[in-house]
Structures are given as structure tokens and as C-alpha cells.
Write a structure and sequence with these properties.
With 300 residues, the protein is an alpha+beta fold. Helix content is 14%, strand content 25%. A hairpin with a 2-residue loop joins strand 14 and strand 15.
Length: 300
């Protein structure tokens, strides 16, 4: 990995991407602190989880549309930024589309392109005929007669983004030092970190004695008036954890049926407090696929 790293452009944050040479993006293209957001207590302490994951970004000259089918041209202009020019994506976040015809019917593909699904936005600006052309291209059924119409195609840009790619080692783990995910408490009155700990683990690494590695995490924490900091978020170990917000000490944890990729909620019924969280393994490449809402009752 060091040999590969030395060929990359790595000059700090916010450097422009280059043509033909991968650029290290760190924090990654998913960001550091995530869309789950932080929690803040009454004392002005902010609690936030963060990814420590490097990504790669590369530009390439935009391919000429001469001799290109309408479906391929539309795919390149509308879809390739996420799924890549070669349709290989960056699973599981950005699915490989090379064999999509074996997984989804044409009507299902049309609904997803138009309305979106999961993290993929909809593309209502693409006409019915345009979506049909993209689907035919992806399914390998586009007819030569579909060539020629370019009304919806192309941005006029000379270059295109070649797709999202994590910077991973040969074993599939982040090619940066641990921790790969963290949970921090920051005093907003002083700007100082009160504590910072690894968040998440890889079960197969734990089995080999490698603990506290941290992991990718998506979904934020909540904090209670009594000082409980509650968070799921960790992608690989599928755990829900409760920490002491004053010290970062782990008080309780349990394994969820799927990853708790959401911010939990807490509520009270009949004087008893509950915690609930939405779980899904849509982005977990090693876990069983599925989703569920899970609720726990706190001890009286």
C-alpha cells in the first residue's frame, strides 16, 4: 500500500482532483462527522461520532459521444459519478451495475431511476424515453436505432469524476492507522476535547485479538439529562452502546439484528423510559441483509 500511496496526490485537505492520478481525500468523501449529527447537553458539551476513512478521487477526460448509444451517453452523464464509467460502482454504498439485469426487472430499475431509493436520489429530469435508454444499455438490450439523440446528454465539461473509491488495504480494511471511527466529547465553552475514544470494531479482527479499532459509523448519538450517551451507528459490529457522557466509559452494549445506521430516540410510556432505533444492513457488506425497528426498556 505504501508503494501505491506514493503514486497518489496527497497534499492535505481541499486540493483539486487531478486527471489520471488518484487524490487522497481525507476526511473521506462521506465526510468525518456524519449526517446523523451531534448531541449537546445542558452544560454545552457536544458529543459527535466521526469516520477516520480515506477515499480516492480521480478525474478522466470525458469520453466522446461519437458512436455512443443514447443509453450509454445518458448513463455517463447521469449515473457514472457514483457507479463509475465501467458500471462497477463501489459496493455496498454504490452498487455494481454490470449484472444488474440479473437482480432487478426493467420496471423496478425504471422506478428507482425516476424516484430514487435509499441514498440514491431520483432523476425526474430524465424523460421516460431517456430512462428506457439507460435501462436498455444496462441490460444489454439497447438497439442500434437508439443512437443519435443527444438532447438530454452531456454537461459540456471536459472531464468527469471516475467514481467513489475507499482507500483500502489488500485485506479490505482502511489503509490508514486506527482508530477508523471515533466518538468525542467537546466542551463548546472552551473548544477543548474532554475525551475521545474509538467507536466500533470488526468482529473478525476482535476474534484475532484486535480490539478498539473503530469502524465506519453512520447515525448520531443522543444524550440524556442523567448523563447517558446512546449511539448505534457502527457499521460492522451492529452494536448499540450506552456510555457515561462525563467520562466516555462504556456502561452497556448489545448486538442489534442489523446495523443501527440511524440516530436513536428515547421516550417514556407509563413512567418507563424506552430507547428505539432503526436498523439496516443495506451498507454492511458482511452482515445478513434485512432491516428492523428495535426498542429496549430501561430498568426502572
Amino acid at each position: 500500500m505504501l508503494k501505491a500511496f506514493r503514486t497518489y496526490n496527497s497534499n492535505g485537505q481541499f486540493v483539486p482532483l487531478r486527471v489520471g492520478q488518484p487524490t487522497i481525500v481525507f476526511p473521506g468523501l462521506d465526510g468525518g462527522a456524519e449526517w446523523g449529527g451531534p448531541a449537546v447537553d445542558q452544560k454545552g458539551v457536544l458529543y459527535v461520532n466521526s469516520n477516520e476513512m480515506a477515499w480516492l478521487g480521480t478525474l478522466a477526460p470525458r469520453a466522446s459521444e461519437v458512436g455512443m448509444s443514447r443509453g450509454e451517453a445518458l448513463y455517463r452523464s447521469q449515473c457514472s459519478a457514483c457507479h463509475g464509467p465501467e458500471r462497477k460502482g463501489s459496493p455496498p454504498a454504490f452498487p455494481d451495475l454490470t449484472q444488474v439485469a440479473t437482480r432487478r426487472a426493467a420496471a423496478e430499475m425504471d422506478a428507482i431511476i425516476k424516484g430514487g431509493k435509499g441514498r440514491m436520489p431520483g432523476f425526474p429530469q430524465v424523460s421516460d424515453e431517456g430512462r428506457a435508454a439507460i435501462i436498455a444499455f444496462l441490460r444489454g438490450t439497447e438497439a442500434p436505432a437508439a443512437r443519435g439523440d443527444r438532447k438530454e446528454v452531456g454537461s459540456g465539461a471536459a472531464y468527469q469524476f471516475t467514481g467513489y473509491q475507499r482507500f483500502l488495504d489488500p485485506d479490505g480494511y482502511p489503509a490508514v492507522g486506527t482508530p477508523w471511527g471515533t466518538l468525542s466529547a467537546i466542551d463548546l465553552n472552551s473548544g477543548q476535547y474532554l475525551w475521545k475514544i474509538p467507536l466500533g470494531e470488526y468482529p473478525e479482527l476482535v476474534a484475532r485479538g484486535m480490539t478498539n479499532t473503530g469502524s465506519e459509523n453512520y447515525g448520531g448519538p443522543i444524550v440524556t439529562a442523567s448523563g447517558l450517551l446512546i449511539i448505534g451507528a457502527t457499521l460492522r459490529d451492529q452494536k448499540l452502546r450506552i456510555f457515561d457522557s462525563r467520562t466516555g466509559k462504556l456502561l452497556w452494549q448489545t448486538r442489534l439484528p442489523y446495523t443501527g445506521m440511524a440516530t436513536p430516540i428515547t421516550y417514556s410510556v407509563g413512567g418507563r423510559q424506552f430507547i428505539a432505533i432503526a436498523t439496516s444492513n443495506a451498507r454492511n457488506p458482511t452482515g445478513a441483509k434485512g432491516s428492523a425497528y428495535v426498542a429496549y426498556a430501561l430498568p426502572r
